[in-house]
């Protein structure tokens, strides 16, 4: 570490170490890749295992349920050791989860695949709990939100790569899976399903190789601790931290908003391929192109948002994004032709700034000594992606209309806009600035 890099008493640095920040940001596409592969798996499992929309969405429930269960243990690892140790732990567990796809693809049971996905999620929970907070702290406090937005800009690159891997390694040419199996005997269909399930292993082979390289780079790179100095005072217990956070009204509102935002984002992405198939796409491989377009839009949206937030208040940008998002999702629900798919793709532009802005803004309302556990709670809000897609799938099954089910995501986006409208009003009050500054000390 260079000598002119100084850690401040609040844990932030006087400047950002560039190589360490870039390497840290490279973790974001790694969980983006895993998350987008779930969208591929949902479509594949729907046909191969003959699942309902609700049952196929359990892929997301297993994935994001792992985040919820492990985020607090991950925060305790950070408290007892360091962000770097938590990241290395996450990478090892991520590798183990990917390796589990080998027995899963041969056992050919939906439960085993869900177990492998859950194992990956455990590793990713360590990575996200550490990396999101670490990215916001590895530099000057004034640029914490900008740093996290920059790191989050790497996410759609990984998500895009996950979809490309799934398109060419999991999905195959020809008619859709349902169409192909319709003309097969029971034995032929069984063998066909086994072949299709073996294809699900392929992207995870490449992921393991990348993960090993990244793990070695982290192992041999020195990182600052970025932890507040306690000045000889004992660190707060977990119970004290819970009581403090339970009384923090703005923190709780941020948690609810992150829960609904992540759930909405994952729900839209989970059903975009299926929406394209329902409205006329010829097969899964062609339909997956619309997820590629979605992640390109997501990437563009982050850059546009970063630009806008240098000129306007973040709350105003997110309010505008939410209004447009609600209108776009209403179009997806009500337009009975293929343009609804393009609207579902476009809405990804509007997802860009949400996660990082909610995360950094919510964390800023917390005193520094509670930062590690508070960050874990915000990561735990990712469990919204275990509930909202399943709810949207259930609504689709009950109504018999996947398009109308997008109303679930519409309501979530409306809440995001309402949250930022409330934050804008609160932050305009002089007393609020003083309270936030006091909380940040």
UniProtKB/TrEMBL annotation:
Its main location: membrane. The chain crosses the membrane at residues 21-42, 54-78, 85-104, 110-132, 153-171, 203-220, 259-281, 287-305, 317-334, 340-361, 373-395, 401-421. GO terms for molecular function: fucose:proton symporter activity. Pfam families: MFS_1. Signal peptide: none annotated. It is a multi-pass membrane protein. The keyword Oxidoreductase does not apply. InterPro entries: Lfuc_symporter_FucP, MFS, MFS_trans_sf, MFS_TsgA-like. Keywords: Cell membrane, Membrane, Transmembrane, Transmembrane helix. CDD domains: MFS_FucP_like (cd17394). The keyword Transmembrane applies. It is found in: Cell inner membrane. GO terms for cellular component: plasma membrane. NCBIfam families: fucP (TIGR00885). This is L-fucose permease. It comes from Paramixta manurensis.
């Amino acid at each position: 570490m260079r000598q002119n890099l100084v850690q401040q008493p609040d844990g932030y640095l006087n400047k950002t170490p560039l190589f360490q920040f870039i390497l840290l940001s490279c973790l974001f596409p790694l969980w983006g890749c895993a998350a987008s592969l779930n969208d591929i798996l949902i479509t594949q499992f729907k046909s191969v295992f003959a699942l309902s929309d609700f049952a196929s969405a359990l892929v997301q429930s297993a994935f994001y349920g792992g985040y919820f269960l492990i985020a607090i243990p991950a925060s305790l690892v950070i408290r007892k050791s360091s962000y770097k140790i938590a990241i290395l732990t996450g990478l090892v567990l991520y590798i183990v989860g990917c390796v589990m796809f080998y027995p899963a693809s041969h056992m050919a049971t939906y439960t085993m695949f869900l177990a492998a996905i859950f194992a990956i999620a455990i590793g990713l929970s360590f990575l996200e709990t550490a990396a999101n907070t670490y990215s916001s702290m590895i530099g000057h406090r004034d640029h914490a939100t900008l740093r996290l937005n920059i790191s989050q800009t790497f996410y759609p690159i990984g998500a895009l790569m996950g979809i490309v891997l799934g398109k060419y390694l999991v999905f195959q040419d020809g008619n859709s899976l349902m169409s192909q199996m319709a003309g097969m005997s029971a034995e032929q269909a069984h063998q066909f399903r086994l072949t299709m399930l073996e294809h699900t292993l392929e992207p995870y082979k490449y992921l393991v190789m990348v993960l090993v390289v990244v793990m070695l780079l982290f192992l041999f790179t020195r990182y600052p601790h970025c932890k507040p100095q306690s000045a000889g005072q004992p660190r707060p217990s977990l119970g004290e931290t819970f009581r403090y956070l339970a009384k923090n009204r703005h923190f709780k509102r941020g948690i609810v908003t992150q829960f609904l935002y992540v759930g909405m984002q994952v729900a839209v992405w989970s059903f975009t391929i299926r929406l394209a198939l329902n409205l006329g796409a010829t097969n899964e491989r062609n339909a997956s192109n619309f997820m590629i377009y979605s992640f390109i839009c997501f990437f563009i949206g982050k850059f546009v948002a970063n630009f806008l937030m240098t000129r306007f208040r973040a709350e105003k940008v997110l309010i505008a994004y939410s209004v447009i998002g609600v209108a776009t999702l209403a179009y997806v629900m009500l337009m009975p032709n293929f343009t609804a798919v393009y609207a579902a793709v476009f809405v990804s532009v509007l997802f860009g700034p949400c996660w990082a802005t909610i995360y950094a803004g919510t964390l800023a309302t917390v005193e520094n000594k509670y930062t590690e556990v508070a960050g874990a709670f915000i990561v735990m809000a990712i469990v919204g992606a275990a509930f909202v897609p399943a709810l949207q799938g259930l609504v689709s099954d009950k109504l018999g209309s996947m398009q109308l089910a997008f109303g679930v995501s519409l309501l979530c986006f409306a809440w995001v806009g309402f949250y930022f409208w409330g934050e804008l009003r609160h932050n305009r009050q002089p007393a609020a600035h003083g309270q936030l500054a006091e909380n940040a000390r």
